[in-house]
């Protein structure tokens, strides 16, 4: 090995991962990137955490927890896919308008809205029956 090759930085990896650990590290970096770079993902995380806290406060049943987790995970999964679609479009089109890029980005964003609508329905079904009596009791007390 020459002195130059010993001191030169490792080239960025473009071949396959060599171990489960390496695959996992790259996947974890991907998740961190979505959270760091996507404001909508940060909003989903905060709203998801609030829903989990309310669920804990109102003592959800096991099946309620499963529906709530499904709703939260679906929204995040769609947001991750939306980010993938946006990045691929930007990679292909660069700073130029393309009707197909618009189509792909709008459909991917639509999937997020679709999943969010499911989450709102799940939230209403789970929380309204538990919170409504508390609201009534609180308003009639005053
Ligand atoms: N290269 C392009 N060609 C055509 N339309 C584009 C292009 N880039 C963006 N758009 C349009 O602009 C919108 C915003 O694009 P952008 O990539 O900024 O998404 P974003 O603001 O991160 O969206 P989101 O709020 O869904 O995360 C897209 O939904 C699409 O309608």
From TrEMBL:
<keyword id="KW-0418">Kinase</keyword>
<feature type="binding site">
    <location>
        <position position="86"/>
    </location>
    <ligand>
        <name>ATP</name>
    </ligand>
</feature>
<feature type="transmembrane region" description="Helical">
    <location>
        <begin position="106"/>
        <end position="128"/>
    </location>
</feature>
<feature type="active site" description="Proton acceptor">
    <location>
        <position position="79"/>
    </location>
</feature>
<feature type="binding site">
    <location>
        <begin position="105"/>
        <end position="106"/>
    </location>
    <ligand>
        <name>ATP</name>
    </ligand>
</feature>
<dbReference type="InterPro" id="IPR036945">
    <property type="entry name" value="DAGK_sf"/>
</dbReference>
<keyword id="KW-0812">Transmembrane</keyword>
<dbReference type="GO" id="GO:0005886">
    <property type="term" value="C:plasma membrane"/>
</dbReference>
<keyword id="KW-0479">Metal-binding</keyword>
<feature type="binding site">
    <location>
        <position position="86"/>
    </location>
    <ligand>
        <name>a divalent metal cation</name>
    </ligand>
</feature>
<dbReference type="InterPro" id="IPR000829">
    <property type="entry name" value="DAGK"/>
</dbReference>
<keyword id="KW-0444">Lipid biosynthesis</keyword>
<dbReference type="GO" id="GO:0008654">
    <property type="term" value="P:phospholipid biosynthetic process"/>
</dbReference>
<keyword id="KW-0808">Transferase</keyword>
<dbReference type="GO" id="GO:0005524">
    <property type="term" value="F:ATP binding"/>
</dbReference>
<feature type="binding site">
    <location>
        <position position="38"/>
    </location>
    <ligand>
        <name>ATP</name>
    </ligand>
</feature>
<dbReference type="GO" id="GO:0016301">
    <property type="term" value="F:kinase activity"/>
</dbReference>
<dbReference type="GO" id="GO:0046872">
    <property type="term" value="F:metal ion binding"/>
</dbReference>
<keyword id="KW-1208">Phospholipid metabolism</keyword>
<keyword id="KW-0472">Membrane</keyword>
<keyword id="KW-0460">Magnesium</keyword>
<comment type="similarity">
    <text>Belongs to the bacterial diacylglycerol kinase family.</text>
</comment>
<protein>
    <submittedName>
        <fullName>UDP kinase [Lactobacillus sp.]</fullName>
    </submittedName>
</protein>
<keyword id="KW-1003">Cell membrane</keyword>
<feature type="transmembrane region" description="Helical">
    <location>
        <begin position="41"/>
        <end position="59"/>
    </location>
</feature>
<keyword id="KW-0067">ATP-binding</keyword>
<keyword id="KW-1133">Transmembrane helix</keyword>
<keyword id="KW-0547">Nucleotide-binding</keyword>
<feature type="binding site">
    <location>
        <position position="79"/>
    </location>
    <ligand>
        <name>substrate</name>
    </ligand>
</feature>
<keyword id="KW-0443">Lipid metabolism</keyword>
<keyword id="KW-0594">Phospholipid biosynthesis</keyword>
<dbReference type="InterPro" id="IPR033717">
    <property type="entry name" value="UDPK"/>
</dbReference>
<dbReference type="Pfam" id="PF01219">
    <property type="entry name" value="DAGK_prokar"/>
</dbReference>
<feature type="binding site">
    <location>
        <position position="38"/>
    </location>
    <ligand>
        <name>a divalent metal cation</name>
    </ligand>
</feature>
């Amino acid at each position: 090995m020459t002195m130059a090759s010993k001191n030169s930085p490792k080239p960025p990896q473009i071949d396959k991962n060599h171990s489960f650990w390496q695959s996992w590290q790259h996947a974890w970096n991907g998740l961190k990137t979505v959270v760091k770079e996507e404001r909508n993902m940060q909003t989903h995380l905060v709203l998801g955490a609030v829903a989990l806290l309310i669920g804990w406060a109102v003592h959800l049943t096991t099946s309620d927890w499963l529906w709530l987790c499904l709703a939260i995970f679906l929204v995040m999964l769609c947001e991750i896919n939306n980010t993938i679609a946006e990045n691929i479009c930007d990679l292909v089109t660069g700073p130029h308008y393309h009707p197909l890029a618009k189509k792909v980005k709008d459909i991917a964003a639509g999937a997020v809205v679709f999943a969010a609508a499911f989450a709102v329905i799940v939230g209403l079904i789970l929380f309204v029956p538990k919170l409504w009596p508390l609201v009534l009791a609180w308003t009639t007390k005053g």
